[in-house]
Design brief:
425 residues, mainly alpha, Arc Repressor Mutant, subunit A, 19 helices
């Protein structure tokens, strides 16, 4: 195996093992920042030694063993915390001694408690949304600072600062490295699911830049969703979110044309939809519903996505059912964006005039003042009603508000089409 091959292997091992590695170390040292430093030290050691000694039979256990040796070295140097350091050193040394008999002890994690604790720590509400996203991608996704910065089109130093501040905030707030219990569990779980879905949405419909989608982020979010399903199998909304992401991601190949231009849902070639992802998503949806989550927000959104997935063509879409699901969602998760999507569903089910009236009620909503999809929806509905000059103005306004180049071009094209239609009347 060449050095290049070994480095590729190390990269793959790191992506797979780093979350468990950091989680196991954080449980011992009770500091996420220190745990990540120790894991990174082990990674550097692998890069230095594996090209010479070869890839170990159990690379994850090798990384954990190396990281724990580094932990002992650091703890022994911290004389100010001698008593605590001594206790931790004894614990780590006992594990290292046990690993001589059974190397798998290095990665022992009963029912995923360490990893689940890391999920809840990285997504703790004490952190800003941006910090939670960055830290989650770093610790649980194994992405580098450069990769996160590239995905979100922000400067690398900005991402680095967010991660450093996030770890410092967790340490200063003395956030316990544990799975919350009782009522706090549902509150904290909502934060975890929110972070995962934010990552997915940025990949599914990029807010800025030259690309309509960033599939890597979608894939990372779905991977995290599958991890959560394994760690919290009795939570219906975990299954609901995974169902929503997998069904939506099934359309990826059909959402862009040969030049990367966006293709809207009604115009997509459904033969290019990924049937495996659809089946997996529908299975996850059924599981969420069987656990009593049928009317919870992510499960409702997954049920809406399932209506599209089950329709063999755009004309066969059950818009009446989708409108009904949005009615329930608007009660369970009242928000201006849900209200706007509900207006679209009612327009498709009961006519554009009905939808436009509902959309018009949102024009003074402060949270939608700079949201490009409100004028985009109004432009679409105005065009269907034959009010093409007004539609052109709305599409142009929407184009001025979006930061995504592909979406701006699409909206300007629709504005031009509306202008031509207006001129021929």
């Amino acid at each position: 195996m060449t050095t290049t091959d070994i480095h590729r292997t190390i990269d793959a091992v790191w992506r797979i093992e780093s979350p468990r590695l950091i989680a196991g170390l954080a449980r011992i040292v009770r500091d996420v920042g220190l745990a990540e430093e120790l894991a990174q030290d082990a990674l550097v050691a692998a890069l230095e030694q594996w090209p010479t000694i070869g890839v170990p039979h159990k690379p994850g256990a090798w990384l954990m063993t190396t990281a724990k040796h580094r932990a002992i070295d650091q703890l022994r140097r911290h004389a100010l915390h001698q008593r605590k350091a001594y206790a931790l050193t004894q614990e780590i040394e006992a594990q290292l001694e046990a690993s001589i008999v059974d190397p798998d002890v290095m990665l022992d994690d009963p029912i995923g408690d360490d990893l689940l604790s890391l999920v809840f720590t990285a997504c703790h509400p004490v952190l800003s949304t941006e910090a939670r996203v960055a830290l989650t991608l770093r610790l649980l996704g194994g992405l580098t600072t450069t990769e996160i910065a590239r995905a979100y089109l922000v400067p690398e130093p900005t991402v680095a600062q967010r991660i450093v501040r996030a770890k410092r905030t967790l340490s200063q707030a003395q956030v316990p490295f544990e799975v919350p219990r009782g009522d706090e569990l549902s509150v904290r779980l909502a934060s975890v699911l929110e972070v995962v879905y934010l990552i997915f949405n940025e990949g599914y419909a990029a807010t800025a830049g030259d690309d309509w989608m960033r599939p890597t982020l979608c894939e990372e979010a779905m991977r995290l969703g599958r991890v959560l399903v394994g760690l919290a199998p009795a939570e219906p909304e975990v299954h609901g979110l995974l169902a929503l992401m997998e069904i939506q991601a099934s359309r990826t190949a059909a959402r862009t044309g040969p030049g990367g231009e966006p293709i809207l849902l009604g115009e997509q070639n459904r033969g290019r939809w990924d049937q495996l992802l659809i089946r997996r998503g529908l299975d996850a949806l059924a599981r969420a519903e069987s656990l009593g989550g049928a009317e919870r927000p992510y499960t409702l959104q997954a049920a809406i996505a399932a209506c599209h997935a089950r329709a063999r063509s755009a004309d066969e879409t059950d818009w009446s059912r989708i409108a009904g699901l949005y009615d329930i969602l608007a009660q369970r998760l009242p928000s201006p964006v849900v209200a706007l999507n509900r207006a679209v569903a009612h327009a498709m089910a009961f006519g554009p005039a009905t939808g436009l009236a509902m959309a018009d009620e949102l024009r003074d909503e402060p949270l939608l003042r700079h949201y490009h999809l409100l004028p985009s929806v109004r432009g679409d509905l105005l065009g269907k009603l034959g009010r093409h000059a007004e539609a052109r103005e709305e599409f142009e306004r929407a184009a001025s508000l979006t930061r995504n180049t592909r979406e701006r071009n699409l909206l300007l094209q629709r504005a031009a089409t509306s202008a031509r239609s207006a001129s021929t009347r």
